[in-house]
Amino acid sequence: MTPSNEKKIEKLERALARAHASQEAPQFSTNWVYSIIREVRQHPSRARRTTEVPRLVWRAATVVVFLSMIVVGSVLTWDAEQIHTGFSGLFTEATMDPTLL
Question: What is the pLDDT of residue 13?
Fold first, then answer.
């Protein structure tokens, strides 16, 4: 920039700073202030939304644990005594039964 442009910008900045400093703060009524506060409190905050995510995760974890307990319980109560030939018999029965393939 040229020196004359810089002087104009500085003069404008000083004028704007003086104009801003001479302004008084607006006077608001008490009812207006309370209505604004009430309106702000009615809007949902982000903090409330971010606390819902961990709650959802814990609920999902509870369902997963419950389903896991059902699966483990059904596996433990499965009658494995029907195969009397031992561990190798499990493979022979699995190859003969078409539903297991």
Answer: 94
Q: Rounded distance, CA 101 to CA 89, Å? A: 16
Question: Distances from the Cα of 14 to the Cαs of 2, 6, 9, 18, in angstroms?
Answer: 19, 12, 9, 6
Report pLDDT digits (tens) over 68-78: 999 888 877 77
- Alpha helix ranges (H) inside the chain: 3-22, 30-42, 46-77, 87-96
Tokens for 36?
């604004």
User: Which pTM was predicted?
Assistant: 0.35
DSSP 43: S
Would you say 70 and 76 are in contact if contact means Cβ atoms under 8 Å apart? no
